[in-house]
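Working notes for the structural subgroup meeting. M.R. asked for a predicted model of this chain before we commit to crystallization trials. I am recording the input and output together here so anyone reviewing the notebook later can reproduce the run.

Input as submitted:
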Amino acid sequence: MADSERSAGALLIDALRSAGVTHLFANFGSDHPAIIEALAQDRAAGVDVPTVILCPHEFSALSAAHGYAAATGRPQAVFVHTDVGTANLGGAVHNAARSRVPVFVFAGLTPYTLEGELPGGRNTFVNHLQDVADQHGLVRPYVKWSYDLRTAVNVPQVVHRALQIARSAPAGPVYVTAAREVLEQRAADVPLDVERWQPVSASPAPDGVVDESLPSADAGVPAPHRHDVPRAAALRRSSARRSRGAARHPGRRVQRRSAELPSRSPPPRRR
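Returned structure, recorded in C-alpha cell form:
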C-alpha cells in the first residue's frame, strides 16, 4: 500500500477544508472512526481547521450550521449517526430547505460485512438494528441532492459536487452517506482544481426576449404568438385591477404574496 494513500475519511475532511468549510457541527457515532482518526491526525500535525463543534442533539447541530450559513453565506458541515441521527435532524432539514441555506450533511451507513472481510465491518448487534431500507428517504423531500459514497477513489469529487449543488441558487442542504468499510478504504490523494466546482451561475434570458414573446396590449398580435393571447389578456386584467385598487387607496401598502407561503385572509377590521 502506497504511503501517499489515505483513508476515505481523511479525503472527506481534506475536501471539505479545501472547499472552504471551517466548522463541523457533529454528533459522532460508531460509523465515524475514520473521520475521528483523520481529525486527530490533523490536530497532531497542527491543523485545526475545520473546527469541530460537538452538539448533544442533531437538530441543534443542523440549526447551528443553518445560522452560520445564513449569516455568512458559506456552507458548513453537519455529521450525524446513521438512521437515528438522520431522523433526529427533524424539522431542521425542513427549515434549511425552506430558508434556502446551503449545508453539507453527512451520515454514516451501517457496515455491510459481517465476518471481518473488510476493515470497519459489523461488530455489534446494533449494526443490524440500524440497517434500514432507505435511510436517504428520511430527508429526500427536503434536500437538493443525496448521494452514497461507494468507494474512496472519488470522495473529493463527490464532496465538491455536493457543495456546488448546495451553493447554487436556490441554495439548500445536501445529504451524503458512506458505510464504515468505505470510510476505511484507502486511495491516492489526487489534487483537484477547486475552481471547477463553483456554484452554477444564473442564466437569465437576454434583455427584450421576454417582452418580445408577449403580445402588446395596444398592438396587433403576431401570428406566432396567438396561442399566448388568453394568458396575456389575463395578465393585463390582473394588472388593471391592481392599478384601480392603488388609485382608490393611494396610501395603502401593496402586499405581494409568495408562492412558498400559505395564503392568509387579512384580519377583520375593528369597528
